[in-house]
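Each letter names a residue; the fold follows as tokens. Both lines appear below:
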Amino acid sequence: MRYPAGGGMNAAARVRREKVRIQAAAMFAESQTTAQIASELRVSEKSVRQWRRRWTAGGTAALASAGPGGSDCKLSGDQQKQLIEMLDDGPVVHGWDDARWTLARVAELIERRFEITYTLRGVSYLLHRIGYSQQVPTRRAIERDPQAIATWHRRRWPSVRG
């Protein structure tokens, strides 16, 4: 399952889900059957069985939310801010000969500056986390003449359009 917010449940959904597990714990204490609990809480019997095993092993505390999933970012908050500034400066400032950031270039920049290695997929996740999205540059010919284009639009286009 994919989540639009970047993976996993958001904080409100985790709280709701934890409340359901706590309700299930009260029902476990009352010795209700798995089928009864699943029906009343509108969850699967498999979930109820898993929760019951955790409750039996560790009590109600074992059903508490573990927090958001996923690994922590390798870069600190300050390093992320520095990376944003470096990306905004552009790749030419950092030694590349054209004005395009690629995942490989960003990974190399991070390794040079912070001595932290990232995979290309990790760089993609990091860039998404700090607010960047994939962009495809508009391809235009070097020989493009804006004046000639404007003249064509003004003189020729009306007759072509009909």
About this structure: Residues 1-6 have pLDDT under 50 and may be disordered. Residues 11-29 form the longest helix (19 residues). The two ends are 51 Å apart (CA to CA).
